[in-house]
Amino acid sequence: MSEQLVNSLPTINALLNATSALLAVSGWVAIRRGVQKAHIALMGAALVCSALFLASYLVYHSIHGTTRFIAPLAIRTVYLVILLTHTVLAAVIVPLILAAVTLALRGKYDKHKHLARWVAPIWLYVSVTGVVIYLMLYHLGPRFAN
Q1: Those residues with Cβ within 8 angstroms of residue 52's Cβ, 6 or more apart along the chain or in another chain
Q2: In whole angstroms, what is the distance from residue 54 CA to residue 65 CA?
Q3: Is 49 in contact with 13 (CB distance < 8 Å)?
Q4: Which of 1, 12, 28, 98 lies 20 to 30 Å (CA to CA) from residue 75?
Q5: Crossing angle, helix 3-32 and helix 36-64, to 10 degrees?
Q6: Cβ-based neighbour number of residue 135 at 10 Å
Q7: Spatial CA neighbour of 85 closest among 124, 54, 126
Q8: What is the mean pLDDT of the chain?
């Protein structure tokens, strides 16, 4: 894999996270409006974006390793709190998403709806904080490194 492609993966990952968040919100709006086919398509697309993000994230970190966030203590503390909550919830959300999708595919819509009320805000938080972490790490952090 070329160095240029590897170096572009964090930006691609942030775009995938942002796209996933937008698709998930759109899917939620669609189901609230009673447009089930649009909901299914939008949530499926959000799931694909999240899966592509996860694959790309794992590839990037297996090649590049970790990137340290260098900033004054107050900003670094905010970053670490966001990173910690993001990381814990990212680990939790994967099986929850899979469970919600499984319930929907099996036609257990009441159970799907009940679980989705928990899954949606966590998935949204993880997607949005992924973008925030990217912005802090690759755009804010370098300002303090010099």
Answers
A1: 16
A2: 15
A3: no
A4: 12
A5: 160
A6: 12
A7: 126
A8: 96
